Model the fold of this input.
Amino acid sequence: MARVVVALSFPGTVHEAESCWYDTAHWPAWVDGLERVLDVAGGWPEPGGSVRWESGPAGRGRVSERVAAYEPLSGQTVEVEDDAIRGHQHVAFTPAGDSVEVALSLEYEIKRRSIVTPLIDVLFIRRAMERSLRATLTRFGAQLAGTR
Done:
């Protein structure tokens, strides 16, 4: 599996960041590519809980996230799947003085593979994934600042 990691720090507490992160009503404002949340079920953000969302026309289509692990005030791991990839996304919240570091990682595998898939992944897909995670975290930081 390929892996992409982005970590950024924002003014705030772990509790504030976690509350903001798990509030799916505000995801369209900061999750890269997300146009609308379709449904939230099963006690989100607890294990077994799930969120299904849809991207805009040029995006990922329908995306499913199911919680595999959750530790309050620490982080969460979700199993994520869309038409092109499947994998695990992990968010971690770490206190850093008057700030909170939010680390977002995605381990993924490309569903439709060919002999050139590894090269395409390294040259194009992995970079696009990193940009998407960074955009998500940057907009999340603005959302978090707006809630303080």
Observations:
- The chain has one domain: 2-147.
- The radius of gyration is 15 Å.
